[in-house]
Write a structure and sequence with these properties.
mainly alpha, four-stranded mixed β-sheet, 70% helix, 4% strand, globular, metal-binding
Length: 419
């Protein structure tokens, strides 16, 4: 095995080891008593339930990750990458068509192998802890819709990528980058109107105290909304959420029905204020630019490994190809992706603190966001005391207690160290 193979193997094993260590530390950190700050919303039984939920999901995640790693290694060292390639080459199709079949079959195998785990997570673990509301009909419908979108959107995009690298020469990565940036921008614009409604029903929020409070806040902060919608999140889960969609004057807010049902008007406005903070602080734009830059770097590096014989030897491939280069490069790129994800999550946690600060500074009820976070942690059975190493590797949001501590400090109602 050459140096490329060593990098891939070491990265896969090291990443799995780090996950195991982080999970063990995280479980140990969750065995303490309920923090005083949460005693007003957490009963002892509910807190024990949250710890049981953490144990169940952690064990499940470890088993699923180990299975994925084992499946990849078996597929790799059994020569199945080459067997599959030779099978599709036997059809005598062009490079782009063969690449679509090859990569599509790999993705389909991945989804099929993971389906039992998805079913178990949804209908066993989530159901056991009272979260799952998904019916079999909804689950199958979501799978079919996702498959259809993958064919209609992912298929042409992949074909375009393969065509560029197959026929556009040395500047292929640049043409591909420009095309995918454009596609990404178009999808950001059309997704709220055409794609999201395929999975959820969006109903305009009716007139009343909540709508008036949201519109008043949006006007006071110079954040006009073209619509406020209620999304039927309860048809899949009892967990709550809220998010913004759209750009410019087409900005919309979607509130889960489960969120509205369990929070006061002040708390819901505070959640809106937090999301507004992301826009006001340019976090959405920053994340979009970083995502595009990351895509450009990936495509640029991919151009150097295109049809590299040493890389194909690692995976026991007989023939080199553009589509094979794409698959194997992404495995080789995994250590960079892993390190980059840590950096991006650190930035994301910083952004969350900034959005919290914006909400505190613009809401009339400066403590409402803290109250909302406590209720959300209770309804979602969040881990209140995650281990710092686990947070470092996995958290895109700061731990909820850290966020509340900062909110209390900003609002002039500090949490004592004993809490």
């Amino acid at each position: 095995m050459n140096s490329f193979g060593v990098v891939v193997i070491v990265t896969l094993l090291l990443t799995f080891l780090l996950k195991v260590v982080a999970d063990i530390l995280n479980l140990r950190a969750s065995t303490g008593d309920l923090p005083l700050e949460f005693q007003s919303v957490y009963e002892p039984e509910a807190y024990r339930k949250s710890q049981d939920y953490l144990k169940a999901t952690t064990l499940f995640s470890l088993v699923a990750t180990a299975f994925d790693l084992l499946l990849l290694l078996v597929f790799w060292f059994s020569g199945s990458f080459d067997l599959l390639d030779r099978f599709f080459r036997g059809f005598g199709l062009g490079d782009v068509q063969t690449g679509l079949l090859y990569i599509g079959s790999l993705l389909l195998l991945q989804v099929t192998a993971g389906l039992p785990f998805t079913l178990y997570r949804t209908f066993v673990i989530e159901a056991r802890f009272g979260f799952n509301k998904t019916t079999t009909t909804v689950f199958i419908g979501d799978m079919l819709k996702s498959l259809l979108l993958a064919l209609l959107l992912g298929g042409p995009a992949l074909a375009l990528l393969l065509w560029f690298f197959g026929y556009a020469g040395a500047s292929a990565w640049l043409w591909a980058w420009g095309a995918f940036v454009l596609i990404s921008l178009v999808l950001q614009y059309v997704a709220p109107t055409w794609i999201m409604p395929l999975f959820n029903r969006f109903e305009p929020l009716g007139d009343g105290e909540l709508k008036a409070a949201i519109l008043n806040y949006a006007n006071n902060t110079g954040f006009p909304l073209s619509g406020i919608f209620v999304i039927d999140g309860s048809k899949r889960s009892s967990k709550a959420n809220a998010f913004f969609t759209g750009f410019g004057r087409r900005k919309r807010i979607a509130l889960f029905d489960t969120l509205i049902a369990s929070h006061t008007v002040d708390e819901l406005v505070a959640v809106l204020a937090h999301e507004t903070g992301h826009f006001k602080k340019k976090h959405v734009l920053i994340n979009m630019v970083l995502s595009m830059l990351n895509l450009g770097i990936i495509l640029f590096l991919l151009s150097f490994f295109m049809q590299n014989r040493m890389l194909f030897d690692v995976f026991f491939m007989t023939d080199v190809s553009v589509y094979g280069s794409l698959v194997f490069f992404m495995l080789l790129y995994s250590p960079v992706e892993f390190l980059l994800s840590i950096f991006l999550q650190m930035l994301s946690r910083k952004h969350e603190y900034e959005a919290d600060a914006y909400a505190v500074s613009t809401c009339s009820n400066r403590g409402a966001l803290a109250d909302a976070l406590k209720k959300l942690s209770r309804s979602n059975l969040s881990n209140l005391t995650p281990h710092p190493f686990y947070v470092f590797l996995n958290y895109s949001h700061p731990p909820v207690f850290d966020r509340i501590r900062r909110i209390r400090h900003l609002s002039g109602n500090r949490i004592s160290p004993s809490n």
